[in-house]
């Protein structure tokens, strides 16, 4: 299933109804509650003036002919405690916002602090290539809400890093390096051939075969 179709199916699986027109690639879900906005990390919702805002949203300001509503508690990453039996909490379970820093466009870093095991839920699309580590040690990633990512985090203070590096990047670099080595090798071989063609020894051999040469005799005479 392509990423576009997963958006539609995940939205419907979470009981939210239509998310647009799949065949026309129009993904335009209606976010009508603050809890739904928090699930997907939506911090603001804009509605036409006079239309009701999302339930639980807070009026922020007017924007032209529209009204902007703020969603309390919405965040790109949230931390939720595991159930008593160690299983993952419900998709809609409340979570505490965790600040995210981005050392690079392909990297998220977060610091978690808790007295019990929790799950870190990230509003990142689950596509191949994401890798997670806790304190530098690789950890598994699972899917959250049918579309996003989550990582289980032990109790205590930890640094969680998400890094995007799909295998296609590695393949591309290897192929590019191989092509560069091949080109360099070809240039070295061609350079050696040219030097041999213009060396004195080569010109002497030409004389021996009767071909014209500009090589002079060893005693300086023409």
In short:
The chain is α+β, with helices and mostly antiparallel strands and 222 residues long. It is 26% helix and 32% strand.
Please characterize this protein's 3D structure.
The protein is α+β, with helices and mostly antiparallel strands. It has a domain at 168-208. Helix content is 26%, strand content 32%. The chain has helices at 3-13, 34-39, 167-197, 200-208, and strands at residues 20-21, 26-27, 44-48, 58-63, 66-70, 77-81, 96-97, 101-104, 107-114, 118-122, 130-134, 137-139, 142-144, 148-153, 156-164. It has a five-stranded antiparallel β-sheet, with no helix packed on it. The chain has a five-stranded antiparallel β-sheet with strand order 8-9-15-11-12, with no helix packed on it. A hairpin with a 2-residue loop joins strand 11 and strand 12.
Helices, strands, pairings?
Layout: H1 3-13, E1 20-21, E2 26-27, H2 34-39, E3 44-48, E4 58-63, E5 66-70, E6 77-81, E7 96-97, E8 101-104, E9 107-114, E10 118-122, E11 130-134, E12 137-139, E13 142-144, E14 148-153, E15 156-164, H3 167-197, H4 200-208
Antiparallel strand pairs: 1-2, 3-5, 4-5, 6-7, 6-10, 8-9, 9-15, 10-14, 11-12, 11-15, 13-14
What key attributes describe this structure?
5-stranded antiparallel beta sheet; 26% helix; elongated; 222 residues; single chain; alpha+beta
Q: Could you give the count of β-strands?
A: 15
Order of helices and strands: HEEHEEEEEEEEEEEEEHH
Shape category: elongated
Q: Catalogue the unreliable spans.
A: none
Estimate what percentage of residues fall within beta strands. 25-35%
Strand count, sense and barrel status of the largest sheet are: 5 strands, antiparallel
**Structure annotation, total helices:** 4
Strand order of the largest sheet: 7-6-10-14-13
SS-derived structural category: alpha+beta
Helix content percent band? 25-40%
- The rounded distance between the terminal residues' Cα atoms is 82 Å
Average pLDDT figure: 79
The Rg value, from CA coordinates, equals: 32 Å
């Amino acid at each position: 299933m392509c990423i576009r179709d997963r958006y539609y199916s995940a939205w419907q699986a979470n009981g939210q109804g239509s998310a647009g027109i799949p065949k026309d690639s129009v993904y335009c879900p209606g976010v009508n509650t603050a809890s739904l906005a928090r699930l997907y990390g939506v911090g603001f919702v804009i509605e036409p003036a006079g239309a009701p805002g999302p339930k639980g949203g807070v009026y922020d300001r007017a924007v032209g002919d529209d009204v902007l509503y703020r969603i309390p508690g919405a965040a790109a990453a949230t931390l939720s405690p595991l159930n008593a039996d160690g299983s993952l909490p419900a998709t809609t379970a409340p979570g505490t916002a965790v600040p995210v820093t981005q050392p690079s466009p392909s990297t998220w870093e977060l610091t978690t602090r808790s007295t019990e095991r929790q799950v870190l839920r990230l509003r990142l699309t689950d596509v191949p290539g994401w890798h997670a580590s806790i304190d530098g040690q690789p950890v598994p990633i699972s899917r959250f809400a049918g579309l996003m990512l989550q990582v289980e985090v032990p109790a205590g203070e930890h640094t969680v890093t998400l890094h995007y590096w799909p295998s296609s990047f590695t393949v591309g670099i290897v192929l590019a390096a191989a092509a560069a080595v091949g080109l360099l090798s070809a240039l070295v071989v061609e350079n050696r051939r040219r030097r041999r063609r213009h060396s004195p020894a080569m010109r002497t051999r030409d004389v021996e075969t009767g071909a014209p040469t500009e090589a002079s005799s060893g005693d300086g005479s023409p």
